[in-house]
Specification:
Layout (H helix, E strand, L loop, with lengths): L7 H13 L2 H8 L3 H15 L4 E4 L2 E4 L1 H28 L4 E7 L7 H12 L3 E7 L2 H10 L4 E5 L9 E16 L9 E3 L7 E4 L6 H13 L5 E5 L3 H9 L5 E4 L10 E7 L4 E9 L5 H10 L8
Parallel strand pairs: 3-4, 3-5, 7-11, 8-9
Antiparallel strand pairs: 1-2, 5-12, 6-10, 6-11, 6-12
Helix pairs in contact: 1-2, 1-3, 1-4
C-alpha cells in the first residue's frame, strides 16, 4: 500500500533543520519549541521509513536518506511558493489571460485605444484577441470560450444572461463606387439608393445591425435588393469597389482606404449604430472588471 504524500509543513521543518543542523537554532528560526520540531521530524521519518538525521555528541547530520530528500523537499516548497504567488497575482488581477472577441470594424475605432489603456494599467495580463462577428461572440460568451466581447447592436433579449455597456454610437455612411454619380455629392438621400443593388453582411452574423440597416431603407420607402453578402466590412467595400452594388455601413468604415470607394453622409442622418462591450453577468472576474473600468464607469457588481 502506497504511503500518502508528505505534508508540506513537515518538509518545511525538515529543510530548516537540514540547513541549521541544530535543533535549538532550527526551532528559533521556525518560531516553535524544540519538542514540536522533534515530533514533526519523527513523523516525517515514519512516513519515509528511514532516519533522516543522525543525532550524536558531535551534533546533527543528515543521513543518506536525508541528503536524498533535501533537494526534492526544496523543489516542493519552491513550487508551492511560486504557485501561491501566481494564484495571488491572478486573483488580484495582476496576471492571467483575458480572452476578448471583437468585431473587425472596431479595430478602426475603439479597440486600439481600449487595448492600449488596458495594457498600460495591467502589463502582466496576457490578452488573447479574437476577431469575431456579433453572433459568434454572443455564442462564445455563453459557452465561456471568451471573457469579453466588443460588438455592434447587442440583442435586447440577451440582457438577462449577459451584461452590456455602450462604448459609442456612430452614424451610418453610404458606401459607393467612386465612379457612381451620387459620389459627386457630399450627402446622399437614402431614397436615392432604392434602385441600387446592395452588398451587406449576412443577417446571421449580426441580426440587429442587419435589421437596423434594412429598417433605415424601409423608412426611406424601399426594401434593399441584396445582390451580394460578405462577412467582413472590408470585403463589403472591396465588392462595392468592383461595382457589384452599394452599401450602408458604420461611418468608421471610411477608414478602410480603397481608391475606388467613396463614403458619403446620408440623409436622414440621425440613425446611430451602438457599439457595446459584453460580458457574462455571473462571471465578472477581476480581469473582466478591469477591462470594464478601462472602457469607463464602475466595474460590474459581483454575482
Amino acid at each position: 500500500m502506497e504511503r500518502p504524500e508528505l505534508p508540506l509543513g513537515q518538509l518545511h521543518v525538515f529543510v530548516v533543520l537540514a540547513e541549521e543542523l541544530h535543533f535549538g537554532r532550527a526551532a528559533a528560526r521556525l518560531g516553535i519549541a524544540q519538542p514540536p520540531l522533534s515530533q514533526q521530524i519523527r513523523r516525517l521519518e515514519d512516513r519515509v521509513g528511514h532516519a533522516l538525521f543522525r543525532r550524536g555528541p558531535g551534533g546533527v547530520a543528515l543521513t543518506p536518506a536525508g541528503r536524498e530528500l533535501l533537494p526534492a523537499a526544496r523543489r516542493a516548497l519552491s513550487g508551492l511558493a511560486e504557485g501561491l504567488a501566481a494564484a495571488r497575482a491572478v486573483g488580484g488581477g495582476r496576471a492571467g489571460r483575458l480572452r476578448i472577441g471583437f468585431a473587425a470594424s472596431l479595430a478602426l475605432t475603439v479597440l486600439p485605444g481600449l487595448l492600449r489603456t488596458y495594457r498600460q494599467r495591467h502589463p502582466g495580463v496576457d490578452l488573447d484577441i479574437r476577431e469575431m462577428t456579433t453572433a459568434p461572440q454572443l455564442a462564445a460568451l455563453h459557452e465561456g470560450t471568451i471573457d469579453v466581447g466588443l460588438l455592434r447592436e447587442p440583442p435586447a433579449e440577451e440582457e438577462g444572461a449577459l451584461g452590456f455597456r455602450t462604448v459609442l454610437r456612430e452614424p451610418f455612411a453610404a458606401v459607393l463606387p467612386a465612379a457612381h454619380p451620387l459620389a459627386a455629392r457630399r450627402t446622399v438621400r437614402l431614397a436615392e439608393l432604392a434602385d441600387e443593388p446592395f452588398v451587406l453582411l449576412p443577417r446571421a452574423v449580426g441580426p440587429q445591425l442587419y435589421d437596423q440597416i434594412v429598417g433605415l431603407c424601409a423608412e426611406a420607402g424601399f426594401t434593399p435588393r441584396i445582390a451580394q453578402h460578405a462577412v467582413e466590412w472590408q470585403t463589403v467595400c472591396a465588392l462595392v469597389e468592383t461595382g457589384l452594388g452599394v452599401s450602408l455601413a458604420p461611418a468608421s468604415i471610411r477608414r478602410i482606404r480603397l481608391q475606388g470607394v467613396a463614403f458619403r453622409r446620408i440623409d436622414p442622418g440621425g440613425a446611430r449604430t451602438r457599439v457595446a462591450v459584453a460580458w457574462r453577468r455571473d462571471d465578472p472576474g477581476p480581469l473582466v472588471a478591469q477591462l470594464l473600468a478601462a472602457v469607463g464607469g464602475e466595474p460590474p457588481p459581483r454575482g
